[in-house]
Design goal:
Length: 484
């Protein structure tokens, strides 16, 4: 859907909001941040996926494409300070320990409120996914957290008699999972409503692929190419800017021919859910709609994969005909003509990243004078180094190319480069521009959110407090000056 209004926004994931006990949650800090966005003239708040991925793990590795991450729940809404103190929250502890403490707090909330809460309407509205998700979570817990592929055979194959017997013996545990989703949904709806009332759109993110060990795959295995011997193909990307070995994600490959028989019902249900959670939806790894990188499951890197034609046109026709949804394409990487044509066919904006603009290749697509209006432009995304971190680690030639483009003296420092780059982005033709909070605050590499291909140490950067009004006023001035 074409992106016509000029606007600016901030990328800051929920977990990066301030919280003295845990990573950020759906707390009052959300409203404080929305107030700050409004003061700065911003119209968009971009977050990463909010689906259930566990505590401090990659938000792109969810056990459900539909369920909200329970670790984003603001515990303080339901528990007193004295009750919270009994759990001994400490952010320096191992993530597993922190997750166990939050689980115990959620158990207490359920014991206090869950059995008396009427879930009938919530269950009805979320019937297509909630029962399978809750059942998957409880079976997994009862089996010591093994993958569904290692569930007892009857539960793995979803034999009706085995499933019915399990449900009968675990009714309370299944209800608890549903109740936790209910309160997560309620809190997020409150955040989104507050944002919308203040003129802020929530910009969400949806990975193209799902995890093999997920409620999605367990409940509907025919949607994927699953071999009984486990020697099929898995997803990833070839060597690129981020990683010389490519990225071996290991996600199962979709069975598009099987999906076509029910008009890609899984995709329409998945994006219907996302359109309920967000005002704008970014499709991560959009290029897989056109073609995807299939890697032998025995490979240890992504270098030996092959390109396979995708079914994007058919899927997008179904999505756009059945849903009212604002889609953004994350089309970074190897962008071929067929990817561009697919975006243009459905008027879907792509991304521009200014950090890619001055690597010595002369005039390139990421330089602001080449931006088409229907795009979303960044200095960097959550996968990039912070801009200050990039400048501190770049060679002088690259930094000077930035300075010459910005028309600033070569002797000026990195603070000036950041200020002038932000202004250049504001006055660009891109209808939407997004700044990371790290770049707004001019933070270095220590504030980086994610290093692609690095298994540990990501996703935990967090603000200590919401910036004050004085940090917002200059952005309001830029928004007014450049009609954003």
């Amino acid at each position: 859907m074409e992106n016509n209004q000029r606007k600016s926004g901030i990328l800051l994931h929920i977990t990066s909001l301030p919280n003295e006990r845990t990573l950020g949650t759906f707390s009052c800090e959300c409203e404080k941040f929305i107030d700050w966005l409004s003061q700065g003239g911003f119209k968009v708040w971009q977050v990463l996926p909010i689906t259930d991925c566990g505590y401090s793990y990659s938000p792109y590795s969810a056990v459900s494409s539909f369920a909200i991450n329970p670790y984003l729940i603001d515990l303080s809404e339901y528990l007193s300070l004295s009750e919270l103190d009994t759990f001994g929250f400490n952010k320096s502890d191992d993530r597993v320990v922190q997750q166990e403490r939050i689980d115990s707090a959620l158990d207490l909330i359920y014991n206090k409120l869950g059995k008396d809460t009427d879930l009938t309407e919530f269950e009805k509205q979320n019937k297509s996914w909630l029962e399978d998700y809750a059942l998957y979570k409880v079976i997994k817990e009862s089996c010591d957290d093994v993958s569904w592929a290692d569930f007892p055979l009857g539960l793995k194959k979803r034999n009706k008699a085995d499933i019915d017997t399990f449900i009968f013996g675990h009714k309370d545990e299944i209800r608890k999972i549903k109740f936790i989703q209910y309160i997560a949904h309620s809190q997020w709806n409150r955040v989104k409503s507050y944002a919308n009332k203040n003129g802020i759109q929530i910009f969400g993110d949806v990975p193209f692929y799902v995890e093999m060990d997920s409620a999605d795959v367990w409940s509907n295995p025919t949607n994927w190419k699953l071999n009984s011997d486990g020697k099929g193909e898995v997803a990833g990307v070839p060597p690129d800017y981020f990683n010389k070995d490519g990225q071996l994600w290991g996600n199962p490959i979709y069975n598009f021919s099987a999906m076509a028989k029910n008009k890609y019902k899984y995709f329409t249900e998945r994006f219907k859910r996302q359109s309920e959670l967000f005002d704008i939806v970014r499709i991560d790894h959009f290029i897989a709609f056109s073609r995807y990188w299939a890697i032998p499951s025995t490979s240890t890197t992504a270098t030996k994969g092959k390109w396979v034609k995708g079914s994007g046109e058919a899927i997008l026709k179904e999505l756009t005909s059945k849903l009212k949804i604002n889609i953004i394409a994350e089309d970074l990487g190897i962008v071929t003509e067929d990817v561009k044509k697919l975006r243009e066919q459905f008027n879907i904006p792509g991304l521009k990243v200014m950090q890619f603009a001055f690597d010595g290749d002369g005039d390139n697509m990421y330089q602001p004078h080449n931006y088409e209006k229907n795009c979303v432009a960044y200095i960097g995304t959550h996968d990039n180094n912070t801009f200050m971190g990039m400048l501190n680690s770049s060679d002088w030639d690259k930094i000077n190319r930035f300075k010459r483009y910005l028309r600033i003296p070569l002797e000026w420092g990195n603070d000036a480069v950041i200020d002038n780059t932000i202004q250049t982005l504001y006055r660009s033709s891109a209808n939407t521009i997004i700044l990371t909070m790290q770049d707004v605050l001019k933070l270095g590499s220590e504030a980086r959110m994610n290093i692609p291909g690095k298994p540990e140490g990501n996703w935990t950067w967090q603000l200590t407090s919401i910036p004050d009004t004085s940090t917002a006023w200059c952005f309001k001035e830029l928004a007014d000056l450049y009609a954003r």
